[in-house]
Amino acid sequence: MDLGLKGRTALVTGGAAGIGAAIALELAREGCDVAIVDVRRDEKAEASLAAIAAAGVRATFHTADVRDFSLAERTVREVAAAAGRLDVLVCCAGVTDDALSWKMTEAQWDRVLDVNLKGCFAYCRAAGALMKDARAGRIVNIASINGLRGKFGQANYAASKGGMVALSKTLARELGKFGVTVNVVAPGMVRTEMAAVLPPEVIEKAVDETTLGRLAEPRDCAAVVAFLCSDAARHVTGQVVQVDGGQYL
């Protein structure tokens, strides 16, 4: 399906692997030049870059810790300057560090909130300023259904993802009059390397929670993101789209 994204420029944080890589590839297949931001350029990152380039678009990699505000601003401006534009931002960089609330350390809390929520804000702040001036843009933040319902043993992760939802709705209000839409994709459990290390009984429970009887694949999330980045979704903003197969109803 041609979503009319050809020639646009997208920046995807956390685009080296997992859901982020699937999003980067989907946007590339729709014709976007794609800049990946991730903490390290490893074999997974190289594979993601190669897949993007194979789609016939420009692929670039930017090594960055998303928690670094000044680096976020420099990276966003560098991508926009090189392309002459920045049309799409997708914030997908995220980590988990689970523990029961009474056992969770300050370091565990800070790391997850800083990467997931502060990192999202850093890039939304920088990209939003450019999109505001251009009077056009699409921002999609990847949260989680656990940010909507809470999750046993994930006080830090659920709080960070819930914060991303509130942040996105606020940005939608602030940036709407400048032609910028801001939306959230909230997946349930997705078949990624992160999920693969979970105990089988945890995965089975997640499957049982769905109405479709299966977990999402990264491409399921990517397809929704591509739609939200397109002109077909020009009147959609401030929304949370759950890609969970009915896991949270």
Automatic annotation (TrEMBL):
Keyword Oxidoreductase tagged: yes
GO molecular function terms listed in the Swiss-Prot or TrEMBL record: oxidoreductase activity
UniProt xrefs under Gene3D superfamilies: NAD(P)-binding Rossmann-like Domain
Protein source organism: Eiseniibacteriota bacterium
Family recorded in the similarity comment: Belongs to the short-chain dehydrogenases/reductases (SDR) family.
Keyword line: Oxidoreductase
UniProt keyword Oxidoreductase present: yes
GO biological process, one term: monocarboxylic acid metabolic process
Protein name as catalogued: 3-oxoacyl-ACP reductase FabG
Lineage of origin: Bacteria, Candidatus Eiseniibacteriota
InterPro entries hit by this protein: KR_dom (IPR057326), NAD(P)-bd_dom_sf (IPR036291), Sc_DH/Rdtase_CS (IPR020904), SDR (IPR050259), SDR_fam (IPR002347)
Domain Ketoreductase: 8-188
Domain of life from the UniProt record: Bacteria
